[in-house]
Amino acid sequence: MPYQLPALPFAYDALEPHIDARTVEIHHDKHHQTYLNNLNKALEGTPELFNKAPEVLLKDLNALPEALRKTVRNQGGGFVNHNFYFECLGPKAGGEPTGDLAAAIQKAFGNFAAFKEKLTAASVGHFGSGWGWLSLDKSGQLTVHSTANQDSPLSEGLTPLLTCDVWEHAYYLKYQNLRANYVGAWWNVVKWDVVAARYAAARK
Ligand code: MN3
């Protein structure tokens, strides 16, 4: 069975006014769908790969037939990154995390404001298309970083917890060239309960 597009976990207009409905609709139904279609098409000749989660393929690109590596990196990365992005956003969100994740952020970055500043800088300052991330590194420490194009932290041995899509298609209709305004608004739709659950799962 080819991979399937998960339904958007909220209405197109649920992130208004921070992220507009038209952007969400095109982002999910066109861009995200296209990464999935391209990935499914690329794997048509090796259907046994569909038995593995796409995240598993990204974790070990070198295990794939050489002819598939670039496509899985780009299209599979696009599919997995967008699933991850939409899952951690929602209405009535934003604010700050609580519990273990809050304590870990405080320990790693000093306080939430310093963390927010760091992830904002990584996202706004990323040159070209890509993603800003909060991830766990191989030693289990929180780290803020960015990836280019559709590269996944999974391919670098990191465990992603939260991401901000900084491709222009994520913000151009509402914010035009003002990526910093989009990233500033994006914080208002982060679902910290989802991020905290990912953090807890990664530490088991
Ligand atoms: Mn995108």
Structural notes for this entry:
This protein is mainly α and 204 residues long. It has 2 domains: 21-88, Helix Hairpins; 99-202, Iron/manganese superoxide dismutase, C-terminal domain (minor pseudopilin epsh fold), CATH 3.55.40. The protein is built from 8 helices and 3 strands, in the order H-H-H-H-H-E-E-E-H-H-H. It has a 3-stranded antiparallel sheet with strand order 2-1-3, sandwiched between helices. Helix 1 packs antiparallel against helix 3. The longest helix is centred in the first third of the chain and has 22 residues, at 21-42. The mean pLDDT is 97.
Task: Summarize the SSE layout with pairings.
Blueprint: H1 21-42, H2 54-59, H3 66-87, H4 99-109, H5 112-124, E1 130-136, E2 142-148, E3 159-165, H6 172-175, H7 179-186, H8 192-202
Antiparallel strand pairs: 1-2, 1-3
Helix pairs in contact: 1-3
Manganese (III) ion binds at residues 27, 31, 82, 165, 167, 169-170.
